[in-house]
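Subject: Interface between my chains keeps coming out wrong

I've been trying for a while to get a sensible model of this assembly. When I model each chain on its own everything looks fine, but I need the whole thing in one frame so I can look at the contacts. Pasting all components below, labels as-is. Any help appreciated, I'm running out of ideas.
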Amino acid sequence: MTKSSATSGGHCVVDSVGKVYSSSGNDLEIVLKDCSFEVPAGSLTVLLGPSGCGKSTMVKLIAGYETPTLGQVRLDGVPVNGPNADRIVVFQETALFPWMTLQENVAYGPVQAGEAKAAAEREAGALLRTVGLAGFEHRYPTQISGGMQRRAEVARALITRPKLMLLDEPFRGLDHMSRGLMQEYYLKLFDEHRMTTLFVTSEIDEAIFLADRLVVLSYKPTVVKTVIDVDLPRPRNFQMLTSATYGRIKEQALDLLYNEALKAFDQTPAAA
Amino acid sequence: MTRLWDSKLFSLAHWSRRLRSPVLWQGLAGIVTFFAVWQIARWLGWMAIIPSPIELAEGIPEEIAQTGYWQNWIDSSRRVFVGFGIAAISAIVIGVLMGMSTRLRAAIFPLFEVMRPVPPLAWLPLAILFWPSSEMTMAFLTFIGAFFPILLNVLAGIDKVDRRYVQAALSLGSSRGALFRRILVPGALPSLFTGLAIAIGITWEVVIAAEMASGTNGLGYMTWDSYMTHSMIGIVLGMLSIGLAGMACSWMMRWVGQIATPWQK
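Reply #2:
Try treating it as a single job with all components included. I did that and got this:
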C-alpha cells in the first residue's frame, strides 16, 4: 500500500435507482423508490437511514450483486454491470474466508489481480501490521475477536485499492467501546488513503463523526430525504462530538430520522 | 497447513493430557463395567449360550493365532476401501458438477432420489447376477452404500457456502477457477468430510452383510462361518473385530478431516 495514494476517480452516481422485489404471490415489494445521490471522488459519504429501509439493498446494487429495477449506478461515468474489483464491499458480518489465514485473506485480492503470491503476502503482512494485527497474520478468522476481524477485512479491501469502498454497517455488533475505537481507527486510515467511500450506518453519531456528506434515507418507500454536508474539520476526534456544529447537524438529521424511525416502528412487519 | 509431525497424534503433551483427562477414565470405567456385568451374569448362570469374558480372553488368542484371521481383516478392508474409494471419487465429481450446474442437477437429482432409498443389500440379487465375481459384487455393494451419503453431503456443502464469501470473492476479482478452487472447494470441505465419515461407517455395515451372504472370506464371512461351525468364541471375536475395524476407520476419517480443514478448531 503506497501511502497517500490520491486514488484516481471513484466518483459514484446513483441515478434515479429503484428496486422492486417480487415476494410471495404476486405482491411486489418496493424497497427503493427513485433514489438519487452522489459519492464525490475522495469523499467519505455516509448513507444514513433507519433499520430495514433498504440500505443494504443499495450497497448490493452499487456493488453489482443485484441489478436495479429502475435507474442506473455509474462509477466514473461507466454504468455498473456486475461485481468488479473496482468496488469492494466490507460486509456487516465478517466475510473473511474462514479457511484462509488473515494474511492469505488479505493477499487474496492482489493474487487474483496477478501479483506473485510471495509479494502479495509480504504486502498483506505489512498492511495487517498497520491495522494493528501484527502477530496475527497466521491466525484463522475464527481465532480472533470481532474487532480484529473488522480490521482485517478493511485491510483486505484497502489492499486492492478499489475506486470505491462500500462499508455496510461494518462496526455493527461490536461493543460500544470497540466501536468507538474502530471509528477513530478507521478515520485515521481514511485520512491516510482518502479512498472514495460509501459508509452505511443507522447510527447517527457514527454517521456524523465519520462523514463528509450525509445522505439520509427515508423509511419505505425509501427515497433520499436530504443530503447534509458535514463541515467538521479533519482530522477528527471525539471532542468534536460536543461542538456546536456537531449539535446543529445532529439536530437536523435527528429530526428527519426520528419521523422515519417512527414510521418504521409503526409498520414493521416480522422482518427486522 | 498443519503438518503431519506437528499434529496432535505425535505430540507427547497431547497424549499426557489425554491420559490425565477424566473423560478417558470414565470411558474405560464404562467398558470395564460392561464386561463385569456380563461376567457376573454368566456366573449367575444367565445367558449360558454366550461365552463369558474370561472364556473369551482365554479362547481369543488361539483364534487369532489361526492362519487366516488377519487375512480376513485384509480381505474386508480391501473391499471397504475399493468400494469407498470409487464411491468417494465418483460422488465428489458428480456432486461438484451438480453443484455447479443447475441444469445437470435438475436432470440427475430425481433419478438419484429414487435410487437412494433402496438399501444397498436390496441390490444384492441383481449384483450377484450382474457381476462376474463375488469380489466385484461385494465391492459394488459397498460402493452403493457409500455413494449417496457422500454425494448428498458434497451437494449440501456447496449449497451451504455462504453467499457473502462468493460475493466477496467476486468483488476481489476472482476468476472462475479461483472461485471454485479457493472458495467453493474449501467451503464445502467440512461437509464433505461429514459425508465421508458417515459413508465409511455404512461401508463396514454393508461389506459384513455382503460377506455373510456371498463371501468366502473376510470378517463378515468369518463371523458367519463361526456360526455354521458352532464356534461361539469365533462369533464374538468376529463381532469385536468388525467393531474395532469400523471404529479405526471412523477415527482415521476424522483425523484426515482435521488435517484437511485446519481452520475448524
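Reply #3:
Confirming on my end. The CA atoms of residues 118 and 144 of chain B lie 10 Å apart.
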